[in-house]
Each structure stands twice: as C-alpha cells, then as structure tokens.
Amino acid sequence: MVMDFIRNNKIVAAILTVLRVYIGYAWLTAGIGKLTSGGFDAGGFIQGAIASAGGDHPAVQGWWAAFLEAVALPNAELFSFVVMWGEVLVGAALILGIFTNFAALMGITMNFAFLFSGTVSTNAQMVLITVFLIVAGFNAGRYGLDRWVIPFIKKHTQVGRDKMKKEFVAA
Q: Is 151 among the domain residues?
C-alpha cells in the first residue's frame, strides 16, 4: 500500500521532483566546481582517506583503504575524471528527470564512496533523499524527461517489446 502510494501518486511525484532537482543541483554544482577549478586531483583526497584508516579510531575501514591504495591511488587521474564528470552527469540527469533511477543509483554509489572514505558533509542527507528517489521508481521522473523517454525506449527496443509480449500472454 505504501509502496504503491510512493510509486504512483502524482502529488508524491511532485514532491519527488523537488527533491530530485535539489539533489541534482547539489551534484551539478559540485561537478562544475571541480571542472572549472583549474584541475581537480582526487589523489590528495584518496591519500587522506588511506591515512584515516589507521589509529585507535579509524574513520575509514581497512578493506576500503586497501581498495583505495591498490586501485584508486594508482589510477587517481582516471578517478578524478570519473568523479568530475560523474557529478556533472548525475546532476544534469536528475535535474532533467532523464534516466532518473540510473542517475540516482550512480549518485548514491558516489555518496557511499565518499562516506566510506571518511567524508560526511552532506553525503548522508543525500543518501537518505536518494533512497526515496530509487524506491519511487518511475514516479521520481514522472515530471521530467522520463515521462516521454522511458515509454519511447520500451516501445522501440527489443527489451520493451519482450516485456509487452509477456504481459499480453499473461493477460
């Protein structure tokens, strides 16, 4: 009953639109800030996170620090690029309401990566709001480009036609 309400109610869709645009704006401005700052380098952030894994009360879990040290730090240039453009693209997609669920999933993935790295800031708040966007499914993008894009994709792709055939056979 509650899930149906969150996933189908048009008033909820309007509230989700406000939340979606708010989160999108946060991602977009963060990404643009990194792009226009003259060169964002994630290397320092990664090194700080690795250093936070030691001591009596580590802010970063050992397994995450091991990942950062073995994978992220040697590829800091790639991670810098992915973070900058990921933030911009997630932000733009959420603001426009296009591929909303995928954008929200990628956004929450970045939020968790930042949280795992010991940075709290607004990440926890963004995770909480993004959970609602993901749970709402299509309703989160109802008042956005998803309103037209998702039905178009379903109609013009094999995946969408296969789903429609299954629904027709089941009826």
A: no
